[in-house]
Amino acid sequence: MSEISHNLLSRIFWFMSFATLFARIFVFHRPAGISLSFNGGKDCTVLLHLFVAVLYKIHGTEQQQHTPPDTPQHEQQRPPHPQRYPIASIYVTDKNPFGQVERFVDDEIERYNLNLVRIPGPMKKALEEYNRLNGNVNAIMVGTRRDDPHGGNERSVVLVSH
């Protein structure tokens, strides 16, 4: 058996930490109260995929808890796929967007049933406007790498107010 590389272990640890963070956020906020910042970039796309994976895992677990243990396999209901639940999201738009990125965003809207609101930047003003328009949103998740400008200064969870 070969050794697991340090890089792979770091990625596994990162993913487990991220999934745990999402699960904790879902404990404090219902999925309908969580919004994603999505602009089609790599960071946001990873965030979206992980969000949906954890959401599906949680809904699958909830559904399985309601199925009696003696129910035959063929009669058990499968959990609803999270695509059926609209995912609140904001796209902080740029003055000169790339057509290819816009098409990708539109594809992801369809694929993941994003309830996407486009608001022109800058980021802080757009998030404030989105927060004002969506009083039911309690948390906005933003995908940022640690090596991005200002990314290394942010904590995993930053509290915001309405």
Sheet-strand content, in percent, reads: 5-15%
> What is the rounded distance between the termini?
53 Å
SS field, number of helical segments: 4
The total count of strands amounts to 4
CATH architecture field: 3-Layer(aba) Sandwich
Give the fraction of residues assigned to helices: 40-55%
The CATH topology: Rossmann fold
Radius of gyration: 18 Å
Q: Helix-strand pattern, N to C? A: HEHEHEHE
Structural classification: alpha/beta
Give descriptors for this structure.
single chain, 162 residues, alpha/beta, Rossmann fold, four-stranded parallel beta sheet, 4 strands, ATP binding, transmembrane helix
Describe this structure in words.
- 45% of the residues lie in helices and 13% in strands.
- It has four helices and four strands.
- Strands 3-2-1-4 form a four-stranded parallel sheet.
- Helix 1 packs across helix 2 (42-66).
- Residues 61-66 have low confidence and may be disordered.
